[in-house]
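Handout, page 2. Input:
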Amino acid sequence: MKSSIEMSDIKQKQLTDIGVSVLDLVPIVAGKTAADSFKNSLDLAQQVEKLGFTRYWLAEHHNMPGIASSATALLIGHIAGGTSTIRVGSGGIMLPNHAPLVVAEQFGTLETLYPGRIDLGLGRAPGTDQLTAMALRRDLTGNVEDFPRHVEELLGYIGPANPAARVRAVPGEGTDVPVWILGSSTFGAQLAGMLGLPYAFASHFAPAALHHALKVYRESFRPSDTLQKPYAMACVNVTAADTDAEAESLATSLYQSFLSVIRGTARLMQPPVATMDGLWDASEKYAVYQMLRYTFIGAKNTIKDQLQAFLDETQVDEIMVASHIYDHEARVKSYEILGSLFKKS
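Output:
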């Protein structure tokens, strides 16, 4: 049990005490192409690097017209090649879609090209529908319950070189790429804790189990060669602008995207609208708001208060932010406002 002094110290944690990072789904916006998205993502990465953000992660999704991050490892190389200091990684690689050896080779290559800057976040969902999952894997004989075994297999490939091993990742072995476990439930939290790995929770779209998962992770954590104490990150949505009203307007693109998700009608990211009234009914609005519980919208001081309250509740070690904003310049501006809240004096 923590002493009263230790608990007091924890409660005093401020935004400036922790890191802030970016989750990029590489959105394709209406009227633009994937090529535009790649250009914008590189520009955003370069901008947040200057602002002192900790890491820039890209998420693996498939068969989604509005998301261009399907070839995640390739995009990580593209972003890392166009930046110089920010960590770049996956948020995450959906391990059921890939052989652990292939992932080890890809990220071993990335780490060799950009030493000390690559993160490997791993998830156990397919990141797509079942038909597309079949096309990715050719069959569905494996299942998510294989995830712990595949994680340990992958860790073996990127760990210390073993000349006696009959299967080796080249490049890969000896690179010790930092591995994170991603999750939206307690399954990944417990696995991350047992393996002594850092943990990232997807509260930007699956908020329900956040607090329980963090508790499970911290209680099940066992120190490892790579991590001596728990390190938890949570992802949230942020839309920041000069005024609360402007931010609320920009956020209608986010609402439209999640409305498409619950309707199963994925499409390109849509421009902001004057009002969502007439675009969703009461039950759809409720469903979207439930998914977006940890979504913070407003001007600088509004966002600061909301994020500080989130930090007070969760005591996470780092916050990762996704910003679903249609206009690229407005998206960059949102991250500029956000970055100023975490900047050390």
